[in-house]
Amino acid sequence: MKIKEIKVTVCSPGRNFVTVKVITDEGTYGIGDATLNGREMAVVTYLEEHVVPCLIGRDPSEIEDIWQYLYKGVYWRKGPITMASIAAIDMALWDIKGKIAGLPVYQLLGGKSRRGVTLYAHANGESINDTLDKVQEHVDQGFKAVRLQSAIPGLKVTYGVLGDKKDYFELQGNRPLPPEDEWSTQKYFNSIVDLMRQARARFGNEVEFLHDVHSRLTPIESARLGKLMEEFSLLFLEDASIAENQDSYKVIRQHTTTPLAIGETYNTIWDCKDLIQNQLIDYIRVAATHAGGITALRRIADFASIYNVKIAPHGAPDLSPVCFAAHMHLNIWAPNFGIQEFVGFGNDKSKEIFKHNFTVENGMAYMSEAPGLGIEFDEEAALKYPYKRSYLPVSRLEDGTLWNW
Ligand code: CS2
Ligand code: MG
Q1: What is the CATH T-level fold of the domain 3-103, as seen in this structure?
Q2: Ligand 1 atom nearest to CA at 285
Q3: Given this model, what pLDDT does residue 332 score?
Q4: How many CB atoms lie within 10 A of CB 214?
């Protein structure tokens, strides 16, 4: 069997998705996600101009060799664009291998380690009460874990809070230039404790709470936040601080027992190796699409398991349902699975394009037993929603200093 054709399709059912389809000379095909929010076309070009020509005629069963070929063979290793491209090819090859074997991919990884995949939902509110009402909605649907993000008094827009928008920033259609948001650490500290205190007062300790700081704090500020959060027993505090210097998490770790999660912006194991082996974090949140696919995430999960670090794959609205499918196979297999972020299966346009039979009930996701990844991509439907350039916001402090969004 040989790779005969590779198609890269960009569609925008509310937000841009980049989907790769690898087709063999025997007609079997697989799909993968290559979506990199705000830089989608860079990945498309990388794939079409630099990757596809090298793969035509190769044996699609040689997943590992193709992964190594695309990773080491490029010389200029790593980076989000390279790794998203490798990820999409990798997911598609696992999809093909499963289809040929007549097995869902998780069976090829080692089978199920649990009945279902525990999810956490997002409660985003314009006020603390609004946020807590959203928590209630998720609890009523059976979710056992909810991430709380609430507007910060005095700031126009805050990560995760929808403002006057009807939907996530990632789904607010195209933004021809990056919007600029303002950040104040002081205003944030003035409200975050109240949010969690009122949440615990209303829901007791039955619900797991999570919170995404979105890299807005310095390490010592993260240490301070971690200590303040201890009384609320969070499941984890996410992206408390940027960790390009992985040692900086030693500053946080020595001050607080609040569990720490990081990793959604990482694209190789090297970005998190020290954090994991020095046990500076408790959850690694790498996404299959951004970190090199199933082959790479399996490696990271196994490495993390040696250090009691759990996987909690990124699952924001800018990761396509194909990425969610890949995560489902990894999550149901990984002995050190922790929890999966879940923001729904997308809007109606997205459901028209990406078809699957994964199910969600009482805050748990259940596998599709279809061979391969268990998800189909309707190219015709996709072409109804053409690419629209869109950017993630940029963040500045109140004095204008460029900050971490
Ligand atoms: C967030 C993401 O879901 C999360 O944890 O950090 O929504 C993130 O902002 C987006 O994926 C960026 O594109
Ligand atoms: Mg996040």
Answers
A1: Enolase-like; domain 1 (3.30.390)
A2: 5
A3: 98
A4: 18
Handedness of CA 363, 306, 213, 271 (dihedral sign): negative
Distance CA 345, CA 356 (A): 10
The model carries a pTM of: 0.97
Q: What is the domain class of 108-372 according to CATH?
A: alpha beta
Give me the average pLDDT of each 10-residue run along the chain (405 residues): 98 95 98 97 98 98 98 97 98 99 98 98 94 97 97 85 58 74 96 98 97 98 98 98 97 98 98 98 98 98 98 95 98 98 95 97 97 98 95 94 96
Report the pLDDT value the prediction gives residue 170, as an integer from 0 to 100: 58
Identity of residue 123: A
Measured distance CA(241)–CA(247) in Å, rounded: 11
Residue with the nearest Cα to atom 7 of ligand 1? Answer: 316
Which pLDDT value is given to residue 169?
57
Domains of the chain, residue spans: 3-103, 108-372
Q: What residues are labeled active site?
A: 159, 214
Q: Does the Cβ of 81 fall within 6 Å of ligand 1?
A: no
* pLDDT attached to residue 176: 79
User: Is ligand 1 within 6 A of the CB of residue 253?
Assistant: no
Say yes or no: CB of residue 147 within 6 Å of ligand 1: no
Residue count (the chain): 405
Q: Which of 167, 314, 327 to mutate to test the pocket of ligand 1 (most atoms within 8 A of CB)?
A: 314
Spell out the long-range contacts of 138-143 with Cβ–Cβ below 8 A and sequence spacing 24 or more. Answer: 138/363, 139/203, 139/207, 141/362, 141/363, 142/361, 142/362, 142/363, 142/364, 143/119, 143/207, 143/362, 143/363
CB 89 within 8 A of CB 22: yes
pLDDT confidence of residue 157: 81
Any idea which residue has 């499963």 for tokens? 98
Q: Which atom belonging to ligand 1 lies closest to the Cα atom of 160?
A: 7
Helix or strand run (H / E) with residue 118: strand 117-125
The verdict on the CB of residue 404 being under 6 Å from ligand 1 is no
